[in-house]
Amino acid sequence: MSKEMKVPTVGESITEVTVGQWFKKDGDQVQLDEILCELESDKATFEFPSEAAGILRIKAQEGDTVEIGGLICVIEDSEGAEKSAPAETSPAKETPAEAPAKKASGTGEIKEMIVPTVGESITEVTLANWIKKDGDFVTLDEIIAEVDSDKATFELPAEATGILRHVAKEGDVLEIGGMICKIEVTDAAPAKESAPAASSSTSEKTAAMNENYATGHASPAASKILAEKGIAPAAVSGSGKDGRITKEDAMSAQKPAAKPEVQAPKPVESAPAAPIVPGARNSRREKMSSLRKTVSRRLVAVKNETAMLTTFNEVNMKPIMDLRSKFKDQFKEKHGVGLGFMSFFTKAVCVALKEWPAVNAQIDGTEMVFNDFCDISIAVSAPKGLVVPVIRNAESMSFDQIEKEILRLAGKARDNKLSIEEMTGGTFTITNGGVFGSMMSTPIINAPQSAILGMHNIVERPIAENGQVVIRPMMYLALSYDHRIIDGRESVSFLVRVKQLLEDPTRLLFGV
């Protein structure tokens, strides 16, 4: 017996959908409620789950447009052939209770998974977290673990379908090419053993025949109404086809009366935790992460291998703050992103780097490499440590493009999703310690770059202006640079030019 799967009703005004992507291939074994493909309408994308378990036969290909109610695929009963075989081949018919659970057919192949190459300069990784347990059934490309390098965190997908066998443990340091796990390749997931009582098998079969995937599921319009009423779909009986909950069912549904609270039995009190004694001298040890060890090693190397020097200046932030206050609402309405300080600093730095190219250069052995582009690294504090994603060709970007790129990179940094390419190749770095309240600091150069600009907290201070003492929002700027390639005249002139552009931001618009 086969199950024909058709396009469900996904909205009152939607008459057709497009098959976006098939997650399963023709002939694959699929399980009940397993996602088969994506359907795209003119309003949204929907997942299309299997309404039965069996063999998938695809009828509509990717890109095909199918009307509501049109046939998409057929699920063939994988046990149908066995049930229809002649009785002579099976002398004794087994009852459900006696029939052993079917196991997945193994191919005998063992897939050994090794640590892949994740970057040219990365030689080892740390196994951070197993997402799948030892002995779990995994499918091809399913994420099974996370590994940490000294630059980022990577997801490790399964390279075959089968039973996972751990080789490495969480916290183990593995070299590139080292074995991390094995997969015992199988054709399908092993069936769970179940022996239902003979007395209830008839009623369960009857219920299964009367229910399918639509039973108890609400249409999009009904789901919205039920959500507004705070009613769970399980509490509503559907009157639509195959028991689907319609819009009318949702409108007439009433929130069930609250059940009287039943006082739960008091749990057995466990022994109270030892109280913290004032003056106690407790301590604990934590293993350094790969990222933290690499950051430590590189910072010490920079201090030892560069002639690092820092020069300071201060900036009156009132012109920028006034400009932001005047245009921030219109800017966000037009571009969909807020207008921050970082775009002003990035634009000012790019102009100054063009005028003082040594600040945008780096030393490579006995040569100096000068760049005619500005790849600006932005230091971001991520959950696992400091990361420095790069804004490519910032000199050619507008204010809104810079703000959007900063927002994108910062979001990926917080989620530990930055790639190696997004964190390498910068020519100059900006770091903002002011967000944490820092008033002044000497930032360390981000090697192999030759300079880094440090922003700090904005504080209202009295200053002399046109012979008068006035209160202005002031910020200290710090430029740390490698004196081997950048002379004092260039570093000071660069910082003065940045100060000039920030205190008169209209210069950024005209390039003067």
From TrEMBL:
Domain Peripheral subunit-binding (PSBD): 217-254
Enzyme class: transferase
Domain of life: Bacteria
GO cellular component: cytosol; oxoglutarate dehydrogenase complex
GO MF, one annotated term: dihydrolipoyllysine-residue succinyltransferase activity
InterPro entries: 2-oxoA_DH_lipoyl-BS, 2-oxoacid_dehydrogenase, 2-oxoacid_DH_actylTfrase, Biotin_lipoyl, CAT-like_dom_sf, E3-bd_dom_sf, PSBD, Single_hybrid_motif
UniProt keyword annotation of Lipid biosynthesis present: no
Pfam family, one: 2-oxoacid_dh
UniProt-listed Enzyme Commission number(s): 2.3.1.61
Substrates-to-products reaction catalysed: N(6)-[(R)-dihydrolipoyl]-L-lysyl-[protein] + succinyl-CoA = N(6)-[(R)-S(8)-succinyldihydrolipoyl]-L-lysyl-[protein] + CoA
Pathway(s) the chain acts in: Amino-acid degradation; L-lysine degradation via saccharopine pathway; glutaryl-CoA from L-lysine: step 6/6
Biased composition regions of type Low complexity, renumbered to the chain: 86-105
Gene3D superfamilies the record matches: 2.40.50.100, Chloramphenicol acetyltransferase-like domain (3.30.559.10), E3-binding domain (4.10.320.10)
Key words, A-Z: Acyltransferase, Lipoyl, Transferase, Tricarboxylic acid cycle
Biased composition regions of type Basic and acidic residues, renumbered to the chain: 241-250
GO terms classed as biological process: L-lysine catabolic process to acetyl-CoA via saccharopine; tricarboxylic acid cycle
Cofactor(s) recorded in Swiss-Prot or TrEMBL: (R)-lipoate
Entry's family note: Belongs to the 2-oxoacid dehydrogenase family.
Annotated function: E2 component of the 2-oxoglutarate dehydrogenase (OGDH) complex which catalyzes the second step in the conversion of 2-oxoglutarate to succinyl-CoA and CO(2).
Official protein name in the record: Dihydrolipoyllysine-residue succinyltransferase component of 2-oxoglutarate dehydrogenase complex
Naturally occurring in which organism (per UniProt): Algoriphagus alkaliphilus
